[in-house]
Amino acid sequence: MASVLKVDKLDPQSGTALEIGTSGDTVSIPSGATLDISASTLTPPATMPASSGINLTALNATNLGSGTVPTARLGTGTASSSTVLYGDQTYKAEPGGGLVLIWSHDTTATNSIEKLNSFSSTYDIYLLTYTNISFSADATDKIFIGDSGGYITANYAYGYFGVKSSATPWENSIGGNYGNMSSSFINSIDSASASEYGMTGQAWIHNPFQAGSATFLNGYSGFRNGANDAWSTISYWWDTNSDASSDRIKFESSTGNFSTYGNYKLYGLVNS
User: How far apart are CA 167 and CA 190, in angstroms?
Assistant: First the structure.
């Protein structure tokens, strides 16, 4: 029979420490008993024994010092490179829509600028923006679309409509008629030398990479030169009768070179 010691209080003889049991012994608190240390300081061992933490509360996440929280602990669903964690703690497909920057290029003193692998099956629609495009002499900014076999220079149509000057307030033109023309370009604007204002605008390009579908481009430009003899604003479109897949775009000055303070950017519009 186990002996029982009944006292109200145990104090260490020295007044500094009280030891219960000896190394190797097991000291048990029976079921139903309460060990109240709420007004005391508990010094646990450096390595805690395995135990359920279900009843631990008010844990501060800033105290996590190492390791990585498993994705399964952050939310339900499957974490992957194509999913994101939403506020309801579920992994879902990343949100659709939006523009992805594919290419950015500052103009240099060259006659043409080319971007290979500009189009792919990733996007159906692209946005082209251009800022402060000017040339070393009065020129037209030609825009070519094509593939490794060459750029489209036939079987297309184009048109433009805009305000020119007070002497010629409106001008427009429709050309091509799917005929055989000398170059494939957006007759967007007569640009000018560095002493005049650069051309700025944007254009949407539809289905350039999709074989079996014609490529359509529509956009607008703004421009004004010192002599007021060039376009102020213009809207334009370009349509190819070719259903080939295009993977590149080129910009070319009809006369002289580009000035060095312009910029082209190409974006892809996310399909979903």
Answer: 16
Amino acid at 86: Y
Mean of per-residue pLDDT scores for the chain: 80
Q: What confidence score (pLDDT) does residue 229 get? A: 56
User: What is the pTM for the complete model shown?
Assistant: 0.62
Note the maximum CA span of the chain.
120
The contacts found for 217-221 with CB under 8 angstroms, 24 or more apart, are 217/143, 217/145, 217/186, 219/128, 219/186, 219/188, 221/130, 221/188, 221/189
Cα three-residue angle 156-158-159, rounded to 5 degrees = 165
CATH code assigned at 194: 2.60.120
Tens of pLDDT, residue by residue over 9-29, are: 888 887 778 888 888 899 888
pLDDT level of residue 215 (50, 70, 90 thresholds) = confident
DSSP 3-state of 62: helix
Across 135-140, average pLDDT: 74
Residue at 134: amino acid letter: S
As a whole number of angstroms, the distance between CA 97 and CA 100 comes to 9
Q: Which residues of 199-219 are buried (b: 16+ CB within 10 A; e: fewer)?
A: bbbebebbbbbbeeebbebbb
Tell whether 93 is covered by a domain.
no
Q: Which of 145, 150, 154 is nearest to 177 (CA)?
A: 154
Provide φ and ψ at 71, rounded to 5°: -60, -30
Total domain count, the chain: 1
Comparing CA positions, the residue from 83, 140, 118, 88 lying closest to residue 215 is 118
For residues 238 and 185, what is the distance between their CA atoms, to the nearest angstrom?
A: 8
Structural domain that includes position 134: 99-269
